[in-house]
Amino acid sequence: MTEQQGQQPPPAGLAVCYRHRDRETGIRCTRCERPICPECMISASVGYQCPSCVQGASAASRASAPRTLAGGSLVADTRLITKIILALNVAVFIAVLSAGDRLVTDLGMLGHAWDPSRGGWDFIGVADGQWYRMLTSAFLHQEIWHIGFNMLGLWFLGPQLEAALGRLRFVALYLISALAGSTLSYVLAAPNQLSLGASGAIFGLFGATAVLMRRMRYDMRPIGVLLAINLLITFTWSGIAWQAHIGGLVAGAAIAYGMVHAPRSRRTAVQVATCAVVLAVIVVACVIRTQQLVG
Questions:
Q1: Membrane-spanning regions, if any (predicted)?
Q2: Is the pTM of this model over 0.90?
């Protein structure tokens, strides 16, 4: 057997570093007792540890760290994502006030319509490839009362869900609920009906809060009364896109159920699968509706 050039084996009988076989050492890891050279020595509370033991300890620490009910990481600020979403809505609202109706026309939820201002027979909407409208419309508001009510609901429901689910799961819940609201509007509303607002996402938070409270065995009457009032307003006030409210509500409840009832051994996989199934339903519904409108 030949040795690699420049790496001569140490004298027989001396310990060699388990990672660098050409280096002799008299130091051993305090955890596994493997010999380690100065390059591999990592200071510990007592003695030195090898890189493998340090990495293993870090992984075990992450695995045993406290988690939220849905498996998310515990954080100090449980309102961060809520505040970011609220700020985005306010920023877009200010942009709408500055830019006028054109921004609403370009970004609002619209299935399929002819825009004469573009000259000729120019169709716009989701059916014409403008899929971004399904999400951008959820951040659009024109009236102060509209954004006021939606942001009040976000601030009331968001932090509790963000704390219970974790930040990443809360973002998924909010965005998919918004998409589900736009999807039901796309499927059921008139093709040229323009709609906007975060109501679909907010109703998703309502549905998720009801599921969470049920899971925690809290008194369901407060959220039940609040949801009933909002549904009453949805179906009695004119000019409200009830389809977005119901779509967001159903999606939010379904996603939250998958998140808070997922078995701990397969929690992440079940949660990802739940979101994937809801997204798959959204995609299939949109494809079918698009074929109906332009096929």
A1: 80-100, 139-158, 170-188, 194-213, 225-257, 269-288
A2: no
